[in-house]
Design goal:
alpha/beta; Aconitase, domain 3; globular; Aconitase, domain 4; binds iron/sulfur cluster; 8-stranded mixed β-sheet; binds alpha-methylisocitric acid; about 650 residues
Length: about 650
């Protein structure tokens, strides 16, 4: 039978299930990736599994999110990550080496393989023909221990690109257009496979911009075929021998097809404060901007920085505007340093930051109160930049360059003759910042600073659960709303009691105190609850505060799994009236949660305050129900191991 690209890769890795959308499958995992902000938890969980060495083909631990080392917590975390990596057979990418997704694409990604990463933008490597999926740290730890990855088989959507993009129209405009068409919920339960003659218009870094931001659609992942363009890119990295050609069969079929004519595209922009609040740049042109930031795992490649440098060469940014650049990797930084582009950028007035996530995760470059920032990044949820009142726009580098020159949002087509492509650049391979695992792992001492606290755990699910609705929220609540990042908070990623105090900080600053006073309770959400990042802290912190269940209209994939893995019930309203009838402060009782789950019956929720029953369903697979009953994945796994003895 003819197969599409996604089916081919999944089939080759299938451990259980059938490739039937909506049913549970398990696939083997070739590679894993972690980053510092999710990595410490993932490795604590991995250690708890008692496996002597990773069982993947390759595992890499990156330090890219919080690299500043402004306090000892941060430096201690890095030391823990480095020693764990040496001990357990993991490559370690040092702070300053670059953003995990960019470096992984340069040095490690392999077409046709499956990667699991504890970061929601792991699909960036889909630009090289890989199935790369973002997951919570615990799922990644399980994969490192050799377990397969369980997921609901997504629907496969072909995005068929045709036509030639006009001048100054970029890959970023493709994905912004899709976000405008489909919204941040539009990709839920789907994998986007790109095809059609238009894919030849984009080199690997541009394809990766598109697959990277598929995360904002809520998609499980996105992928391009591995063709000659991928081959050239890998040869350029001196990794040609790892290249394999892989694409769909000619008469492959798809669950859905979206046609996109590149010639009809215009420069697009996401307005505050959602990546799908997209319009054409023309519609907001003229808006005054205080800050332009170029970088992040979406747009920090050599191609991107060369575009900016070429536009800015010999010119100056206005005195009242700040321009920052964060190269995606040391390789990119070195390249622009060697060919003179860095000088052009500095002369034009750019501030050069370390190759890291930086402002994208609120680590510095926080806009002024009420400030307006235009960024080439992928997320602009309110407060993510570090300033609740700031407005953040998201655009291509082309639009950012035009805006940096004029100080107002500017359609890049105003710049006149387009910049010609600079190709991939003349690189020197230098892996000095990638530390291979130790040759004598038994001699490595794992170093744990005082900031690294024990893993929090929950006991088995109780039968009767009671508590108040502590917070009622609307649609599209992101993990940035649930547990923000930024420089005050990121340093506590290994310390759940400390980080819990920041839960819902930008939404309701008294939430954590209230939750503790009331000894936990319930959260009520709208649609797409928990969209955005993979940080399991957005489940671990509520668990620490005693949250028993989140009842929402629907959940984003990674967060739903993270809730289950921590033993919090993600329940879904049946119909609209349940959500409408609930208010903050209502006392709820889950009558017979344990018995119902064990018997695969619906759970009953009683609103004690209003004397009404609310219709909810759990939609658990058998395995998920067992995990929740055990009080989380670690308990479930320990129980299975005991059972096997
Ligand atoms: C993000 O972009 O939101 C992050 C920070 O990279 C997160 C991971 C994290 O919170 O550590 C993600 O995308 O998963
Ligand atoms: Fe880092 Fe930002 Fe990419 Fe997340 S989205 S991995 S914070 S650059």
């Amino acid at each position: 039978m003819a197969m599409n690209l996604v089916q081919k890769i999944l089939k080759a890795h299938l451990v259980s299930g059938e490739l039937k959308p909506g049913t549970e499958i398990a696939v083997s995992v070739d590679q894993t990736l972690t980053q510092d902000a999710t990595g410490t938890m993932a490795y604590l969980q991995f250690e708890a599994m008692g496996v002597p060495r990773v069982r993947t083909k390759l595992s890499v631990s990156y330090v890219d999110h919080n690299t500043l080392q402004t306090s000892v917590e941060n430096t201690d975390d890095h030391l823990y990550l480095q020693t764990i990596a040496a001990r357990y057979g993991i490559y370690y990418s040092k702070p300053g080496n670059g953003i995990c997704h960019q470096v992984h694409r340069e040095r490690f990604a392999v077409p046709g393989q499956i990667m699991l990463g504890s970061d929601s933008h792991t699909p960036t490597c889909g630009g090289m023909g890989m199935i790369a999926i973002g997951a919570g740290g615990l799922d990644v730890a399980m994969a490192m221990a050799g377990a397969p990855f369980f997921m609901i088989m997504p629907r496969v959507v072909l995005v068929r690109l045709t036509g030639e993009p006009g001048p100054w129209v970029a890959a970023k405009d493709v994905i912004l257009k899709l976000l405008q068409m489909l919204s941040v919920k539009g990709g839920t339960g789907k994998i986007f496979e790109y095809g059609g003659p238009g894919i030849k218009r984009f080199q690997v870094p541009e394809r990766s911009t598109i697959t990277n931001m598929g995360a904002e659609l809520g998609a499980t992942t996105s992928i391009f075929p591995s063709d000659e363009i991928v081959r050239n890119c890998m040869k350029h990295q001196k990794r040609g021998k790892d290249w394999v050609e892989i694409g769909p069969d000619e008469d492959a079929s798809y669950d859905e097809v979206i046609e996109l004519d590149l010639s009809s595209l215009e420069p697009m922009i996401a307005r505050p404060s959602s990546p799908d609040n997209v319009c054409t740049v023309k519609e907001v042109a003229g808006t005054k901007v205080n800050q332009v930031c170029v970088g992040s795992c979406t747009n920090s490649s050599y191609r991107d920085l060369m575009m900016l440098a070429t536009v800015l060469k010999g010119k100056k940014v206005p005195p009242d505007l700040t321009l920052t650049i964060s190269p995606g990797s040391r390789q990119v930084l070195e390249l622009i340093g060697r060919n003179g582009a860095l000088e052009d950028l500095i002369e034009a007035g750019a501030r050069v930051l370390e190759p890291a996530c930086g402002p994208c995760i609120g680590m510095g470059q926080v806009p002024s109160s009420g400030g307006i920032s235009l960024r080439t990044f992928n997320r602009n949820f309110r407060g993510r930049c570090g300033t609740t009142e700031a407005d953040v726009f998201l655009s291509s580098v082309e639009t950012a360059a035009a805006t940096a020159l004029t100080g107002i949002i500017c359609d890049p087509r105003e710049l006149g003759k387009p910049v010609k492509s600079h190709g991939l650049g003349k690189i020197k391979i230098n892996d000095a910042f990638i530390v291979p695992p130790a040759k004598d792992p038994d001699k490595v001492e794992v170093i744990r600073g005082p900031n690294i606290k024990e893993l929090p755990k929950r006991g088995p699910l109780a039968d009767s659960i009671e508590g108040e609705v502590l917070l009622k929220l609307g649609d599209n609540i992101s993990t940035d709303h649930i547990l923000p990042a930024g420089n005050q908070i990121l340093k506590f990623r290994s310390n759940i009691p400390a980080i819990s105090k920041f839960t819902f900080m930008h939404v309701d600053k008294d939430f954590a105190v209230r939750a503790e006073e009331k000894k936990g309770g319930f959260i009520v959400g709208g649609g797409n609850y928990g969209q955005g990042s993979s940080r399991e802290h957005a489940a671990l912190a509520p668990m620490h505060l005693g949250i028993k269940a989140v009842i929402a209209k629907s959940f984003a994939r990674i967060h739903r799994t993270n809730l289950i893995n921590t033993g919090i019930l993600p329940l879904v309203f049946v119909g609209e009236s349940g959500y409408d009838s609930l208010d903050t402060g209502d006392l709820l009782r889950l009558q017979d949660a344990r018995t119902a789950l064990s018997e695969d019956r619906p759970v009953t929720v009683l609103n004690v305050t209003k004397g009404k029953e609310i219709g909810v369903e759990h939609r658990f697979t058998e395995r998920e129900a067992q995990i929740v009953l055990a009080g989380g994945l670690l308990n479930y796994q320990a129980g299975k191991m005991e059972g096997a003895q």
